[in-house]
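Q: Could you fold this chain for me?
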Amino acid sequence: MQNAIPNNNGYPWPPHQLSGPTLTRPDDIAPGPTPTSTAAIVSLSLGLVGLLCAGPITGIPAVIIGIVALWEIQSSERATDRKIGGTGAAWAGIAIGSIITLGTAALVATVIAAMPDSSASTPDPFPPISTASPTPTAYATPTDPPRPPNRQRQTTTTLVGNVHIVDLGVAETALQIQLRTQRAIAQRDNQTILLQTTSTDCSPCFGLAASLSDPKMQRALEGTRLVRVDVRYYAKELRNLGIDASVIPAFFFLDSDFAPRDGIHGGEWDDDVAENIAPILDAFIRGKLKTRKYPFAPAESPGSDGIPL
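A: Sure. Below is the predicted structure, expressed as structure tokens.
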């Protein structure tokens, strides 16, 4: 038997087969499953929670974390040792979060648009009428009593029932010029001017204003044009005309030069209600009020700058 030819290492040829596991190269190893991005899972979870109950509280974070997950997944694709998946979960989280957020914003906008505007002013039930207009163009409802003038700057005219109520504005021309304008309108409409002194802080004036729509007051004031003058702004000019405004409310008939020729004030009746005011006012307007508690007398000191209120 011939001896085997030794190899370079001194072992016989062919070499002995060694028992044990077979060694493989790294390229021959089968790849395992790709891990899913944690951020993608979180994004999808937040979107589902927002869809069920939380709304935009988790919807907005779902969009932000989903975008982070996409960036993380794209970055891993360029690496050779750590690739991750979860693109679908990330896009689903972004989509659900966006729908929730936009839907909630649209709902809030709809609710706000449907709310009444608190800054809008309530329509005035007594729309102003220009004194320059030949005929009234708008009227108040007869059932709503006009209010005493409230420091208004422009002259306004209100029709209550059949009675024209004129409130002289504080930013208009001099009192006599305004009275001349009102007298011209009264003559055109076959009316008589009845001047009433009033004030914005006069409680009896409010009671008187509330009674104007009463049928008894309507009959008493028939044929008159009631011109109301706020004594707080026309004190000096009233004094110059000889009108005593120390007690209000008061009513005056005027001469051709606008001096008072007759007048009465609220002391002639008791409570400021139509039942008390109308009979006395009716007799005064028709020249039949002979017996009075307070006889008429013009103002004693024309030109005074102020009057006690």
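A (continued): Residues 87-114 form the longest helix (28 residues).
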